[in-house]
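Q: Can I see a sequence and its folded structure?
A: Here is a first one.
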Amino acid sequence: MGILELIEQFEDDFYPISEEKKSLLAKQSLSTVTACLSDMASWQACGGKVSW
């Protein structure tokens, strides 16, 4: 699964990500994107939302 697919899956499971954030994530390594989305999912699970 590539970065764009990970972002799409995150949006399906949690909440939309801004186009600006998607653009920044697309330039990162897969491990960085996975860590970032994991942190964002953790915030959402606790009732919060990381906005960019």
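Q: Show me another, different protein.
A: A second, unrelated one:
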Amino acid sequence: MDMKRIIICDFDETITDRDTIGILGQLPYVVKPEFEPKWSYFTDTYMANYKKFLENPALLGCEDELRRKLPLLSSNVSDITCSNFQSLFNDEIRYQLNAKNLEISSTSEMAKYGLFAGINHWQVYQFVQERMSEGSFSLRNGFKEFMASVSAKQFFIISVNWSAEFIRGAVGEELVELDNVYCNQLVSDGDTFTGQFSNQLLTGSDKVSFIEKIYQNQCCQGTEQQYWYIGDSETDILALLHPKVNGVLLIDPELKEQKFRKLTIEILGIDENLINRFVSSREIGWLQCYVKNQENSLYLAKSWFDLTNINTNTD
């Protein structure tokens, strides 16, 4: 029986070369040039609430003390299985659940002012094409080549971005089906945004829920399947560690060394000597660094081209 690969992927900075939330945030001011308040108001509000979240989370309705046990892969974590995943990472899951309050404080403010209200899907697609053609952002090198062997039906995106229309417009309609894009979706009435947010996908703990949803929907199709989750940020960490997937942390340390070291050493707890060798060697493009559930692994990869090599070597 042929092995079917299910590819589940983050969007911002995993597929794209930079974060696109700020770019999407300019769309209302293109469609509604006189709109007030300006985008800086929403970013300033978010940063003020982020400071509260760090210093006094109770102000946002969170637990008084957000305990986070780092690194996540401490010496007492011998294996990650379906039966122990929730208990092993209970503190991290609770931390992420509390972080929802921070994200909702941001989307609620945008919804209150109707920032995206009245914008239609065609305007989103047009905006994406314009921004990509002028170089505001692009897809990471190697992504299109990787996708050449992936069916749109087997490709899913899980993102804390706000618009599946924006995401699909950037990735390419031929590469991903709209129903396979899960995000903190702007609610639509027909093909027009109401200005409200679904608030269904806000943090890393939500990503885990959607991975399990995809797994449940796919596993009953009668073919042998292998699941991959690809991401680049702290929001992806729980998904990368999920026992049902091969997780790939996709960061080029030559471009983002500080971020890479924080995630691998400080958050995950991967051996620093191993990381140093990976960072310093241009000949090593990917690395298997942890086995989960006795069948899946956690990998590091520098590029989509290197990710293709992982897939080739795990056939």
